[in-house]
Structure formats: structure tokens, C-alpha cells
Design brief:
This is EF-hand domain-containing protein. Keywords: Calcium, Coiled coil. It is a single chain. The protein has two domains: 111 residues, no CATH class; 48 residues. 57% of the residues lie in helices and 15% in strands. The chain contains six helices and three strands, in the order H-E-E-E-H-H-H-H-H. It has a three-stranded antiparallel sheet with strand order 1-2-3.
């Protein structure tokens, strides 16, 4: 999830001094969720983002978030410019949530129905699988480079590299990358 959007919305709420708004629950691909809410006390706004990666209550659905967004007060309660900017930033966030819900291997729905301990296990397994795929990709890249170097040194094409061929190709062999 784009953290700059989170920061931007928080700053908007701080600047607009909105009295109280449980604006959004944000689900990131790492399973972290932030509940953003701002409250005004004696004319000063205090905004906080509480983040708990695993031990979470059931996720608030995207539909519920849209309903909360639709219930934002009219311009009588909030300056029009502020309300417009908050709606725009929130829409960007909701778009990100929609994308995650469709594409994430650990989906919003699967986390909803999974106890916190199993959530941690699911996310750990997923990170391990991603690390394994990265290692495999690096291994394939190394093998490809080794084949290219062998072909480069085997000028005669006989499948063998003699000493003269190795000496001629050594600058390429030791080249970085």
C-alpha cells in the first residue's frame, strides 16, 4: 500500500481539523492494517495510525468502508475543499484495496476467516515462498551466464575449452555482472 497516501490523508485530516472520523481500515499485502482516526480537542487535531500486523479482529469489508466514506458530513460540517481532498485520497486507498482483494494470494477474505496464529503462519509461508522464487531466479540467471561464458570461450565449437581459448576469453570471464 502506498504509504505516501496514508501520510497525505493523515495530514489532510490534521489540517482540516475534522472533529472525529474513523476514516479507513487499510489492508496491505503484508497483512498489516492501520486504523486511522482523528479527534479534535480544544481546537487542536490529534491524528493517530494504529498498526498491528497479525493479531487483528475481523477485517472491515470494502463495502463497509465505502459506506463510511459515503456518510462523511456535508460541507456545512467541513470546508468544501477539505472534504473534496479527503474523498479523493480515500478513493485512491479504496482502489488499492480493491486491487489487493483481487490479486493477493493471501486475500482479505481468507484472513477474515483465519485465526491470528494461522494468519502469521500463512504470511510467513508466503514470504518463504517468495524468497525461494527469488533464489531460483538468481540460480537460473547464474546458469545462463555460465553457459554464455562457456560458449564465448569455446571458439572452436568442439565442446572443450583449451588453454589458449581460456586466455583469450579471460577478460570476459572476470567481467562483473
Amino acid at each position: 500500500f502506498p504509504s505516501h497516501e496514508l501520510m497525505r490523508t493523515t495530514m489532510l485530516l490534521r489540517r482540516c481539523r475534522y472533529s472525529f472520523i474513523p476514516l479507513l481500515l487499510l489492508q496491505t499485502s503484508a497483512g498489516m492494517r492501520a486504523s486511522i482516526h482523528c479527534s479534535a480537542d480544544a481546537g487542536s487535531s490529534q491524528c493517530s495510525a494504529a498498526v498491528n500486523p497479525v493479531q487483528l479482529q475481523a477485517l472491515t469489508s470494502i463495502a463497509q468502508m465505502r459506506a463510511s466514506l459515503a456518510s462523511l458530513p456535508s460541507t456545512a460540517a467541513l470546508p468544501a475543499a477539505c472534504l473534496s481532498e479527503i474523498r479523493e485520497a480515500a478513493s485512491v486507498m479504496l482502489g488499492s484495496l480493491d486491487t489487493l482483494a483481487r490479486s493477493d494470494t493471501v486475500t482479505l477474505e481468507s484472513l477474515d476467516a483465519t485465526p491470528p496464529r494461522q494468519q502469521a503462519s500463512l504470511l510467513t509461508e508466503r514470504l518463504a515462498e517468495e524468497a525461494k522464487q527469488l533464489a531460483k531466479a538468481q540460480e537460473q540467471q547464474d546458469e545462463q551466464r555460465a553457459r554464455e561464458l562457456f560458449e564465448l570461450m569455446d571458439k572452436s565449437g568442439d565442446g572443450l575449452i583449451d588453454f589458449e581459448e581460456f586466455l583469450n576469453a579471460s577478460p570476459a570471464f572476470f567481467a562483473p555482472g
